[in-house]
Amino acid sequence: MQSRGRSGGGGMVSAAALFGARLIAMLPLSVAHALGAMFARLAFLFARRERDRLHANLAIAGYGDDPRLARAAIGEAGKTMFELPWVWLRPVDEVLARVRSVEGIEHVVAANERGSGVVFLTPHLGCFEVAAQFAGSHGPITVMFRAPRQPALRPLLEAGRRRGSVSLVPANTRGATALLAALRRGEWIGVLPDQVPTGGEGEWAPFFGRPAFTMTLAAKLVERTGATVLMAVCERLPRGRGWTIRIEPLTLPPPEAAESATAAMNRALEIVIRRRPEQYLWSYHRYRAPAGVTPPDGAVDGTANDTADRAAG
Predict the structure, then answer these.
(1) How far is CA 249 from each of CA 39, 118, 127, 173, 222, rounded to the nearest angstrom?
(2) CA distances from 311 to 78, 152, 288, 305, 308 (A)
(3) Which segment, 9-18, 152-161, 254-263, is predicted with the most confidence on average?
(4) Among 6, 187, 219, 265, which residue's CB has the most CB atoms within a 10 Å radius?
(5) Distance of CA 241 to the CA centre of its chain
(6) What is the spatial distance between Cα 268 and Cα 252, in angstroms, rounded to a whole number?
(7) Is the CB of residue 252 less than 8 Å from the CB of residue 269?
(8) What's the pLDDT at 9?
(9) Average pLDDT, the chain
(10) How far apart are alpha carbons 163 and 105 in whole angstroms?
(11) pTM value?
C-alpha cells in the first residue's frame, strides 16, 4: 500500500507540474521571467542545500565577495525554470522570433562548406534549450536526452525538445553511437559540456581551479571524426526581450598534447561563463563525484549527496 501511495503522490506532482507548465506558457515571456525570479528568491530561502552550493561554487570561481551577483544568479536560475515551459509549449516560430541576434554564424557556414560535422558545446548558461531549437530550424542536429524521473513529464520534455530537425537519443552507449553516426554524415550534434557524466565517461579536469569530473565524449567524437567544435551560448536579454546566440570556434588539443582536451574545454567554458556569470547555473552540483568514482585530492567530494542530487534531477 505504501508503494501505491508513493506512486499516486508522484502522479499528482506530475499532473500539477504539467498544469503549471501550461499556465506559464500562456504568459508573456517578460512576466514568466519576473515570476521565475521571484519564485527562485523565495525558494532559495528554504532550499539550504542548493543555496549553500550556489554560494560555494561562486566562491570557487572567485565571486564569493559579490552578494549582488549571488542574488542575480538566483533570479536568473528562476528565469531558466519558468522560461522552459514557454520555450517547449509555444509555437517554435514564435520562440525563434525572440532570438534577436546571432553572432558567429559564419563558423557554422564554414564547417558546412568543408563538409564537416559540428559539435555544439552549450553550457548551462542562459536559455540553452533555445540553442538546440535554433540549430534544428536550420539543419539536422542530434542531442542526448535523459528521461525525467516523473514519467508523466516525459511527453512534455520530448515534444518540447524534438522540434524542427532535432533528434533525441538516449544518454547511453547507444546514444553515443548515434552521435558518432550523425557526425560521420556531416550533421550536427549538441552536448552539455558541463554536465557531470557517469563514472566511465569522464575524467577529472580543472574547472575554475578545482578538479571537476568532466565528460570525455566530445573530445573522443572529434578525434574519431575530425568534426568542428563550436561553443554556442544563448544569453538571456533583459525584460523578457528574448535571447542572443553567440557562436565561437574551439580547437581541442590532440591526445598527445600536454593539456588534455577536457581541460582545454573547461578553460574555454570559464571564459564564456565569466562574460555573463549571473546567467550560469551555479546551483548545479558540478563538483560532485559520480557513484563509483573516487575524487582526487583537492576535489569537492560530492558522493554523500550524489543520490539526493540524482533524485532531485
Answers:
(1) 36, 10, 20, 27, 13
(2) 20, 16, 14, 10, 5
(3) 254-263
(4) 265
(5) 21
(6) 10
(7) no
(8) 52
(9) 88
(10) 20
(11) 0.88
Read off φ and ψ for residue 97, nearest 5 degrees: -65, -20
The per-residue pLDDT for range 160-173, each reduced to its tens digit, is 888 889 999 988 88
The alpha carbon dihedral of 126, 127, 130, 135 has a sign of positive
The residue assigned the cell 547555473 is 281
Q: What are phi and psi of 102, to 5 degrees?
A: -130, 120
Q: Which three cell numbers stand for residue 39?
A: 519564485
Q: Grid coordinates representing 30?
A: 517578460
Q: Which residues pair with 191 in a beta bridge?
A: 121
The string of DSSP codes covering 230-241 is EEEEEEEPGGG-
Rounded Cα–Cα distance for residues 158 and 156 (Å): 6
Q: In terms of residue numbers, what domain contains 50?
A: 2-312
State how far the Cα of 254 lies from the Cα of 179, in Å rounded to an integer.
20
Bridge partners, 186 (sequence order):
none
